[in-house]
Amino acid sequence: MLRGRVTTLKFDGYTSEPIRIDNGIGQGDLLSMGLYQYYNADLIEVPKDLGETAMAYVDDSVMIAIVDSFPEAHRKLLNMMTREGGVTEWSSLHNSPLEYSKLALVDFAHSRSSKRRTLLCLPQITVQPTESTKYLEVIFNQNLSWKQQHTHAVGKGTKWAMQIRRVVKPSWGLTPGNARRLYISVAIPRTLYAIDVWCTPPYANRQQQRGTVGITGKVASVQRAGMLAITGGLHTSPTDALDAVAYLMPIPLLVDKACHQAAIHLATLPKSHPLHRIANHKTSGKIKRHRSPINSLLAAYRFDPKKIEKIPATARDPTLQGELPFVTSIADSREDSIKEAKSTREKVQVYTDGSALNGKVGAATILTREGKPPCALHLTLGPKSEHTVHEAELVGILLSMHLISTERHGSTTFVLGVDNQAVQ
Questions:
Q1: Interacting residues of 277 by C-beta distance below 8 A, sequence separation 6+
Q2: pLDDT tens sequence across 234-290
Q3: CA–CA dist 25, 167 (Å, integer)
Q4: Using CA atoms, how far apart are residues 341 and 404, in angstroms rounded to an integer?
Q5: How far is CA 227 from CA 176, 189, 217, in A?
Q6: How far apart are CA 211 and CA 213, in angstroms?
Q7: How far is residue 231's CA from residue 420's CA, in Å, rounded to a whole number?
Q8: Which one is predicted more confidently, 83 or 4?
Q9: How far is residue 82's CA from residue 161's CA, in Å, rounded to a whole number?
Q10: Radius of gyration of the chain (CA)
């Protein structure tokens, strides 16, 4: 895949000769993210036996062994590293030497577990188990606790709040509006990054949840420091007043909003996504003990993912960016419209209309395909005093799109006829 690829270096007006790439992927290459999915795909296929699995994001890969004891887990990890087609062989074949000093070994177990953690002896190095490690900017503790991640998140928020405070002064520096924009765009995302993983929604089921009061209060103190920097308020100013003056959402509501968005995102995942099966399982939100973050989210908001509409992503030719995938034609007269409808080449024709009759407003649409009986839909919106004909025309188009979605896709083209020029 990387054959024939080159890169160049540019600095101070100098451009180097093309340099052949024989290791890894060129830095700054727009295709690097997509290419890495192929580059390290073999690592995901290394686990083959029961209790073995793996996950990866770009160049961060994790090998996981799920067994009853740590020595057995280490034997599985050693096997995945050294077996034929394993991690070591992948490293050699892909000309990507492993940096063994960056290997991290975490033996996960309950805090009350008395199982002794042992060393992992690889041919190249002996790895000492560590209490925690950071993966994708989230700290995972060996006891499956999030206390270290809480401290890390509060530390990041405090750092950015102090940085904003340094550039906001009464006589010079950022204006309050720009400081607020900087806080919203940088400090809040850095502080609440992956909060749906390490924090339970604070207002789940309309009640304050246990275990979230402490971290919510710490994050609120970080936001208070940021609001004091933005508004220039006194240190004795009430937090509620600072929230209102800075026009910022209180932290409990902000955390709840972030968790709710994550839950909705899980519920709308397509069937091809690895988490779709977990999020849509009938018992995902009913587990009472040893809940995972996904279980906590689904239990907190209690909505059925199966009742939420999924809108699939559709691939489109990138060279057609900016061009509409349809053509609009408005006939000059009724006769021209009839002539155009009779001469159209599309096999599937859909016609829609909206009107007011007997004091009510409604819409109807019909789909015709040669050799098949027509399909029709109609909907009554309500009394004329509450709805308009233009609204009915738009509803008719929506009904038409629904009929079209029920047809077989592929290279088939459609024609949609509307008799109201107000809808264009």
A1: none
A2: 889 999 999 999 999 999 889 889 988 998 888 888 888 888 888 887 666 667 777
A3: 39
A4: 18
A5: 10, 16, 15
A6: 6
A7: 53
A8: 83
A9: 47
A10: 30
Place of tokens 């932290």: 251
In whole angstroms, give the CA distance from residue 198 to residue 138.
Answer: 9
DSSP labels, 223-257: HHHHHHHHH---TTS-HHHHHHHHT---HHHHHHH
How many Å apart are CA 297 and CA 303, to the nearest integer?
Answer: 10
CA 209 to chain centre: 25
Neighbours of 392 (CB within 10 A): 24
The answer to whether domain 328-418 has CATH 3.30.420.10 is: yes
Quick: pLDDT tens for 18-29.
888 776 566 666
Q: Which amino acid is at 94?
A: H
- Which token pair is 182? 């900087």
Report d(CA 216, CA 407) in Å as an integer. 50
Q: Do the beta carbons of residue 269 and residue 275 sit within 8 Å?
A: yes
Domain boundaries, the chain: 40-133, 147-307, 328-418
